[in-house]
Design brief:
Length: about 350
């Protein structure tokens, strides 16, 4: 019976992955075929009687088919997200289809631009609300005893529930704060905290990446600035952003160790991911060496500082039900297990066992 259930679950997962892969393939096919239609060496004659129908078909592809395929690939649907993708598709059509072919569809193009403008104005209004409430938010964060990554997130969610743009701005604020605002401070070593990076060379590895990005930025910018100035500028901005992210990630890793407090475990791995786990939601502690050395499943989130060496978790927390973790940019995912590697595993395991025994 158990084997049959495993096979059914495996078939279901395989079916979902196949649907996602098929959707992505069709999405790329639709985009590439529409692009080549107007930018291939073969000439398109605007005098063709079916030409307007051809352009209309491309507009429908980019504003309806592409959004639906994208949502199928992501395996999620919301009307707001769909409308945003439709408007984006109409704007994309303006860049793919030459302007002289769109003379009969100006109203449709302006509709897409208008919808996108309204959404942008709405998001800007949210930013003004965030700026207005920022002093109160900072005051509440300072009064909290929780790690900054968690306390700031809680206050933001309280003020602006279910606002993705605010979550993105919050992530950017945290990145810039840790990248530039923490270098004169020292991490606090408390009895209920455990660092997770000192047994690895993760910080050294990230510093090497920063050096490589700086060298690449100087080289690429010098090669491209005289010929492809726009591309050179875009790459320069992306590389600067990458450097700021790695600097912020290093500091976030140092200043946010694993914390046990209020019958909860507060876990974070730099800016990349964080998770709050209540002890009552833990079903089992997996400490068997053979199980820990097995391949980590997709339903398991890792809080492991990885570098060049292959390492395994010290412990895996099996949860009673899937719990939500927050990834970069406020993305939410649910996981059934949590793999953890800390710098003092024996003490960490001892505290976990004591806490679970007390709850039982």
């Amino acid at each position: 019976m158990l084997e049959e259930l495993k096979n059914e679950v495996y078939c279901l997962l395989l079916k979902k992955n196949s649907v996602s892969l098929l959707s992505l393939s069709l999405l790329l096919l639709v985009l590439s075929s529409n692009y080549l239609l107007y930018h291939s060496p073969f000439e398109i004659y605007s005098s063709s009687s079916n030409f307007n129908g051809l352009v209309l078909g491309s507009i429908l592809d980019l504003s309806l088919v592409v959004p639906l395929l994208f949502l199928a690939w992501q395996r999620k649907f919301s009307w707001k997200y769909f409308i945003v993708l439709m408007a984006t598709g109409l704007i994309t059509a303006r860049f793919i289809i030459p302007i002289e072919y769109l003379s009969s569809f100006k109203t449709v193009m302006w509709l897409g631009i208008g919808v996108e403008a309204l959404l942008i104005l709405f998001e800007i209004s949210l930013l003004f609300m965030l700026a207005k409430n920022l002093p109160d938010i900072i005051e509440k964060v300072k009064a909290s005893s929780l790690p900054l990554l968690f306390s700031f997130s809680y206050v933001i969610n309280e003020k602006f529930p279910k606002k993705p743009i605010i979550q993105i701005i919050y992530s950017e604020m945290m990145m810039f704060y840790y990248a530039f605002g923490t270098w004169k401070k020292q991490p606090n070593s408390e009895t209920n905290t455990f660092t997770i990076y000192k047994r690895s060379s993760l910080i050294t590895f990230q510093i090497m990446i920063i050096h490589a990005v700086v060298i690449e930025t100087l080289g690429i910018h010098w090669l491209l600035h005289s010929k492809l100035i726009i591309l050179s500028f875009i790459l320069l901005v992306l590389n600067i952003y990458s450097i700021i992210f790695f600097l912020g990630d290093i500091q976030a890793l140092r200043f946010n160790p694993l914390r046990i407090e209020h019958n909860r475990i507060y876990l974070s791995l730099g800016l990349a991911k964080r998770m709050e786990i209540r002890f009552k939601d833990i079903e089992e502690l997996i400490v068997d060496t053979k199980m820990l050395e097995q391949k980590i499943s997709k339903t398991t989130i890792e809080f492991i500082a990885r570098d060049f060496e292959k390492v395994h978790p010290d412990i895996i927390l099996k949860l009673k039900s899937p719990m939500e973790a927050t990834l970069f940019m406020g993305i939410k995912r649910k996981y059934e297990q949590v793999a953890i590697r800390v710098d003092n595993p024996q003490k960490f395991k001892k505290i976990l066992k004591q806490q679970l025994e007390e709850r039982n």
